[in-house]
């Protein structure tokens, strides 16, 4: 049901230039703060060089990445209803047609009047792989949510569950590919590098090596944050 498409050269080039502008600006700020007005020409040159280098070096990597498409909500709701029809309990009971609705970029399932809510949830999770799925609990059974929560945690993990008073939402697993890592590194590392350079240099002004050490420390910190598996 989900669709994927290549990012493409034009989109990748545009993204690379934007990342170059952003990273180059951060470099410009760092040099200007460290060298003052004397370093403005160098800072401007390096800013432009950063844009060009990003365009040449990052575009090939970003272009071969894939953009994950969003599953059509109507199609997802239809497949969900079809897959859960076997749990229909007739008039006055739980029915796929009346208890499953499209909601935002996914669907919601009301568990009101359901005799087998656990089976419905298990089957729904098998069908819902790339779309958000919300389980809504009946007012007359407040303990059902507390009973279902640990089961969902065991099946999909805590990070994928959004908790509300009367509902639990399971969001799709975030797949981080090479292009996402590159983009996050380019967005997060430059400000950390600037902060590290300024912080290290302020300890002992007049020592250029501290600017480099601060930038390296900021880059390492940024990379650790981006690649942290607990994100």
In brief, what are we looking at here?
Helix content is 59%, strand content 12%. With 231 residues, it is an alpha+beta fold.
Written account of the structure:
With 231 residues, this protein is an alpha+beta fold. Helix content is 59%, strand content 12%. It has helices at residues 9-35, 40-63, 73-84, 96-99, 117-127, 143-156, 178-203, 208-226, and strands at 4-6, 66-68, 100-103, 106-110, 132-136, 161-163, 167-170. The strands form 2 sheets. Strands 3-4-5-7-6 form a 5-stranded mixed sheet. The chain has a two-stranded antiparallel sheet with strand order 1-2. A hairpin with a 2-residue loop joins strand 3 (100-103) and strand 4. Helix 1 (9-35) packs parallel to helix 7, helix 3 crosses helix 5 (117-127) and helix 7 (178-203) packs antiparallel against helix 8 (208-226). It is elongated, with a radius of gyration of 25 Å.
Specify Rg, calculated over alpha carbons: 25 Å
For the report, how would you describe the main beta sheet?
5 strands, mixed
Query: What spatial order of strands do you see in the largest sheet?
Result: 3-4-5-7-6
SSE series: EHHEHHEEHEHEEHH
Number of helices: 8
Low-confidence stretches: none
Based on Cα principal axes, name the global outline. elongated
Number of strands: 7
Strand content: 5-15%
Mean pLDDT: 82
Give the helix level as a range of percent.
55-70%
Q: Supply the helix-strand structural class.
A: alpha+beta
N-to-C CA distance: 27 Å
